Amino acid sequence: MLVVFAIILLALVLFATEWYPIDVTAILIMVLLMVLEPWTQITPREGIAGFASPATITVLAMLILSSGINRTGIVQRIGQRMAAFAGFDRRKQLAATIGVTGPVSGVINNTPVVAILVPVIADLAHEGKTSPSKLLMPLSFASMLGGTLTLIGTSTNILASDIAAQIGAESPALGLHAFGMFEFTKLGVIVFAVGAVYLMTVGVRLLPERVPADEDLVEEYVLQEYLADVVIPADSSLIGKTVGEVLGDENLGIDVLQLIRYGERFDEPLARKEIHENDTLRLRTNRDTLERIMDAEGLTFAGGPKADAEFYPDGEEPVLVEVVIPSGSFLVGETIASSTFRRRYNANVLAFRTRGDVVRDRFEDIRVRVGDTLLVQAPPDSLTRLVQNEDFIVAHEFDETTYRTEKIPFAVGIIAGVVALPALNVIPIVVSALSGVVMMIVTGVLKPNELYTSVEWNVIFLLAGVIPLGIALQQTGAAAVLGDGVASTATFLPAIGVLWVFYLATGLLTSVISNNASVVLMIPVAASTAQSIGANAFAFVLAVTFAASTAFMTPVGYQTNLFVYGPGGYKFSDFLRVGAPLQLLLSVVTVLGIAFFWGVRV
């Protein structure tokens, strides 16, 4: 037990600090459990059992199904109709954001739903003269609330269902079983409704306008002091030399974005471009470095950008966009320099937003993390490639994106079948989901080569890696020890009070580590606690599941929060200010709802 507790402590530290990506941490934990088999009692077969778990396979299939839905463009169509309905009315904008996102997240994995809707909502905000900050956090929160509506709303629900079924098989007296498709929908509807009312009333008042509605990206990132055009005079010593020779030194801290010669513009690659008299160089650097280079080389300052339209006056010019880095992107763990991002996409990174901090200078060697936002200057053809690449979420909608709209009826029918068959107990959810994947290929909604790019492999490896940790908790008796410890609170708390403690503990844990890891750690302990105090184990498992699916208090608690962190211009404290009261409110609503529908005592 001590060895398992030590591994859990290591896991918590690594998940919270993000020293390694969460999927790498999960695999490390899995390996440690197998290597330390004499103490952890996890055999190699049990160690890799997560890869064959119904939960892992179901989540994999649901990610593919969600991708198929996305490629038809149906979510974008819903979003565009939502924008047309909302117009300039802020209340309608917020109501439409919550009202569309929640129900859709109930039947499609909520992470890709937010990835799709970020650009839709950002554009809706700007066109409707509303700060994106007022809509993007509610978008993320609504997706989490919607994820509580059905079994397939989030990967957390699917994993919790699988763990409950395993514990129920080992301890039949607990009465635990796999969740039905709509088993907790009645509670989910109440939670969603209460959360929506909060966001529409209290939440919108607590949300600051971090990004003014009429502010362009140059102003938002305060780039006026970092972007400048300089002209090469006739007597400059730079004439005849290449851009790389005179300005290519990384220690100099100057990035040449463009060279303009007699109206003709040259972008990447510029290093070997020879400098001529009267050339204009568009530079990104800080004001002190700019002044030094101008004094040393006699350059003439020709001004700096004041707005996107002035910076890029003609349609063929590069445009400014925010690019959010989702999980699974090739950029995660890389730096801007090491990733060759500029060469791949002929795009310049002008600023870098990471965990709420904006870096405008010398950011090429900062390691990129999930949720980081890049302010990118890219020509239209490169922008199209960025939009179509699942390694990025471009926070702006573009008409050039093509969807398989003719496949919408097939996609909707397949999803309906995937939901209905398990709900009617015809076939298990894992069989239904895999059958749906096959039908997506047969009907042409997805192409065979898109199957593998549709899967967020880091999520799959995370699930496979943490599942053995839950097994170790049970087999070594560690879960029972923790359960007995928590059960001791029953001497001064009623059973419903202990249930509330579990909800709060899971919510706090999920705020700093992966929601899937929280479920793996907390459900065995919750089941043991319920057994010790003679309570309804299903009620305790459900409390943990709901708490893990509603991580509102920090941007790192849930992927969707990271997706809106940069485009919303939020600070870390904004999530605590808006999310903590919501988490506390829902802890009471959820616990009372569980007690009403399922009872706390056996």
UniProtKB/TrEMBL annotation:
<dbReference type="InterPro" id="IPR004680">
    <property type="entry name" value="Cit_transptr-like_dom"/>
</dbReference>
<dbReference type="GO" id="GO:0006813">
    <property type="term" value="P:potassium ion transport"/>
</dbReference>
<feature type="domain" description="RCK C-terminal">
    <location>
        <begin position="215"/>
        <end position="299"/>
    </location>
</feature>
<dbReference type="Pfam" id="PF02080">
    <property type="entry name" value="TrkA_C"/>
</dbReference>
<keyword id="KW-0472">Membrane</keyword>
<dbReference type="InterPro" id="IPR051679">
    <property type="entry name" value="DASS-Related_Transporters"/>
</dbReference>
<feature type="transmembrane region" description="Helical">
    <location>
        <begin position="48"/>
        <end position="69"/>
    </location>
</feature>
<dbReference type="InterPro" id="IPR006037">
    <property type="entry name" value="RCK_C"/>
</dbReference>
<keyword id="KW-1133">Transmembrane helix</keyword>
<feature type="transmembrane region" description="Helical">
    <location>
        <begin position="537"/>
        <end position="558"/>
    </location>
</feature>
<feature type="transmembrane region" description="Helical">
    <location>
        <begin position="578"/>
        <end position="600"/>
    </location>
</feature>
<feature type="transmembrane region" description="Helical">
    <location>
        <begin position="485"/>
        <end position="506"/>
    </location>
</feature>
<feature type="transmembrane region" description="Helical">
    <location>
        <begin position="455"/>
        <end position="473"/>
    </location>
</feature>
<feature type="transmembrane region" description="Helical">
    <location>
        <begin position="174"/>
        <end position="200"/>
    </location>
</feature>
<dbReference type="GO" id="GO:0005886">
    <property type="term" value="C:plasma membrane"/>
</dbReference>
<keyword id="KW-0812">Transmembrane</keyword>
<feature type="transmembrane region" description="Helical">
    <location>
        <begin position="135"/>
        <end position="154"/>
    </location>
</feature>
<dbReference type="InterPro" id="IPR036721">
    <property type="entry name" value="RCK_C_sf"/>
</dbReference>
<dbReference type="Pfam" id="PF03600">
    <property type="entry name" value="CitMHS"/>
</dbReference>
<dbReference type="GO" id="GO:0008324">
    <property type="term" value="F:monoatomic cation transmembrane transporter activity"/>
</dbReference>
<feature type="transmembrane region" description="Helical">
    <location>
        <begin position="410"/>
        <end position="443"/>
    </location>
</feature>
<keyword id="KW-0677">Repeat</keyword>
<protein>
    <submittedName>
        <fullName>Arsenite transport protein</fullName>
    </submittedName>
</protein>
<keyword id="KW-0813">Transport</keyword>
<feature type="domain" description="RCK C-terminal">
    <location>
        <begin position="307"/>
        <end position="392"/>
    </location>
</feature>
